[in-house]
Amino acid sequence: MGRGNGGAALGALAPAGVAATIIYTLFIGLPILALLVRAGQQEGIVAGLTGPATLQALRLTAITSVTSLAIVIVAGTPFALLLARRRWPLLRVVDAFVELPIVLPPVVAGVAMLMAFGRHGLLGPALASVGIALPFTTGAVIFAQIFVAAPFYIRAARIGFAGVDPTYEEVSQTLGVSPWATFWRVTLPVAWPSLLTGATLAWARAVSEFGATIMFAGNLTGRTQTMPLAIMTTMESSLGEALALAALMLLMSALALGLLGFLLRRREEATA
Amino acid sequence: MTVPFALFAAALAIAATVFACGTVSDGNGGDADKATLTVFAAASLAESLRALGAAFEAANPGVRVAFNFAGSQTLRTQLEHGASADVFASADWRQMVAVKEAGLLGSAPQCFAANRLTVAAPAGSDAVQSLHDLATPGVTIALAAAEVPAGAYARDTLGLLSADAGFPDGFADAALSNVVTNEANVRGVAQKVALGEVDAGIVYETDAKAAQYAGAVRVVEIPEQFNPAAKYPIAALAGGRLETALAFIGFVQGHNGQAILREHGFAPPATAAYPCQASEASGG
């Protein structure tokens, strides 16, 4: 707003841009508004939000998504750094497939995981021999979330690390700083916005995971029924409860996005 | 200046066309001159009604039958939220009555088939040999969710078993604590049993007999006194192709339709063993 002299290309596209902006805003905004209005009108919305089923779904979603994100970050960070710094032939093949889960329908991921880790899956008997039965457990929920969410973090982290000039790291090392300390003091601070964005997207994807979860982890209150599964289930028994859950998820997502924007802006101001 | 605007107008035109097609195709599917009858039917009816639909199409060359198979409660939810269909075939009265009370029916519901429950277990597993084994700690069970007709019937059966002298107190609770997943429809249960991912599931007899599970599933029978008969009501929906819908319902209830249903293991409706009364649903 306030700047009337943008790029030259905009001039020709401006009317279409304005019209599209209005249509798009309504297209996305109206359903969200409708959800909030209907949820607000619902009697006993507070009871719906604090009912045992909602709380269990909320708790399970929080635990599984945070666990998934922690695993994704701990394993994904060195992986992304390797992808950004080395061009080994085999690594380039891996690189090409890292983002496959992003374009794969989640339900396909769920079937694939059953075929791999299910009781009669490829690794099922081996897992069973050490007493592990994965399907229909909270662990399966976490597996499904990691499967679909990890690429969002790895991709962003790799781009972030690739943007860090390796000569900084080399200078740091020639000054006698250990590689570990170099990573913490040089690489990480520069790549931070990318990592933060990737982590937020990965967390949001883990929270919203549905298809792979219902296929591989099933649908059991308190154990595998995360918020999206609870919404689907309550939609068929109580619209009010489903609306309460959906509104809650909407607020969580908005909050995550707002927090990300705030952190990125604060950093921009700090480095400017 | 006009080129992007023309492009934008073209994009809008395409969007409008897609939108219009979406509205029109509700009543008029792929084949241009054929009337499409949209049937919403319980998941357990998938094979039998597909066969029935093909026979109906053969007898009525101008009509194409399109199906939406899902848990009856899913179909009921979709109808309540404005899905347009011509016929609703539910696996219980509860969902049919809910649709009726929403003012969506175009004809009085009538029973057209009945079914019984059975315990299905993977052919390669011996964890569940008898009904008692359902309550053995460590056994994993898949059920349809409580909202799903098959899930409601299954919970009724567990309750009846629990009340019987031949079963220990708390049998139902013990069996329910072995449940690892509440599926959205009965076929989800059958599929998880057939894959061997659970030790047992409670499905309809017709599911256990369905061709796609042959060899993968074995059956532990539930005696009749613990086995509430599942009744399938069917009705035309308001605002649909009423005449064709009634013709289809007549076909389902007629000689050919009933023969196809028998072939797929369904029992005839409204016999002494399978009473079919709408009033039973008023409580649930």
Instruction: Report the count of strand segments of chain B.
Output: 10
Stretches of chain B where pLDDT falls below 50 for ≥5 residues? 23-31, 279-284
Q: Output the helix-strand order of chain B.
A: HEHEHEHEEEHHEHEHEEHH
> What top-tier CATH class of the largest domain in chain B fits best?
Alpha Beta
Question: What spatial form of chain A do the alpha-carbon principal axes imply?
Answer: globular
| Helix content class of chain A | over 70%
User: What percent strand of chain A?
Assistant: under 5%
Oligomer: heterodimer
Mean pLDDT of chain B: 87
Strand portion of chain B: 15-25%
Strand order of the largest sheet of chain B: 2-1-3-10-4
Q: How helix-rich are the residues of chain B, as a percent range?
A: 25-40%
Major sheet size, sense and barrel closure of chain B = 5 strands, mixed
Main sheet overview of chain A: none
Write down how many β-strands of chain A occur, each being a DSSP E stretch of 2 or more residues. 0
Overall geometric form of chain B: globular
Number of helices of chain A: 13
**Count of alpha and pi helical runs of chain B:** 10
Instruction: Give the radius of gyration of chain B.
Output: 22 Å
Low-confidence runs of chain A: none
